[in-house]
Amino acid sequence: MKLSIQFKNLKGDGPIISHIDHKFSFVFARSQHSIESAAITLKNINDPKGGIDKLCQIVIKPVGLGKIVVTEKRQHLTEAIDHCLHRASQSLDRKLKRRHKLSKRAYRNAAMFDLPAAT
């Protein structure tokens, strides 16, 4: 799995990057094998004005599925990162469960119509 982190109008220092790495590996521990790539973009929207201006956007490309895009805006950068990672994890879990349910249903339907060979 490939993880890329981009900073726009923000300083990308070591503690933020290590926080992202730690949270990402913790949140996606069970489903990391299903992720082909992930991109995290962090932006400061209002620059020096203050307020709710820290944006975190996560784009996850699961193996064999369409991409997942989650965006979160918060006052503090770590809050935006944490909430965005949590929501992205939930979206990925839903997609994986849906795919598993559909493949299970297809297998069951194929088995239901599989007739024994005539002798």
Could you walk me through the main structural features you see in this protein, from its secondary elements to its overall organization?
The chain has helices spanning 14-27, 77-112, and strands at residues 2-8, 35-44, 54-62, 68-74. The protein is an alpha+beta fold and 119 residues long. Helix 1 (14-27) runs parallel beside helix 2 (77-112). The chain is elongated, with a radius of gyration of 20 Å. 18% of the residues are buried. The model has no long low-confidence stretch (mean pLDDT 85).
Uncertain regions spanning at least 5 consecutive residues: none
Q: Class, according to the CATH hierarchy?
A: Alpha Beta
Principal-axes geometry comes out as elongated
The number of helices is 2
Residues in β-strands, percent: 25-35%
- Please write the string of helix (H) and strand (E) elements: EHEEEH
CATH architecture type: 2-Layer Sandwich
CATH superfamily: Ribosome hibernation promotion factor-like
Distance between the termini: 51 Å
Mean pLDDT: 85
Q: Could you please say which CATH topology applies here?
A: Double Stranded RNA Binding Domain
Helix content estimate: 40-55%
Sheet with the most strands, sense and barrel status: 4 strands, mixed
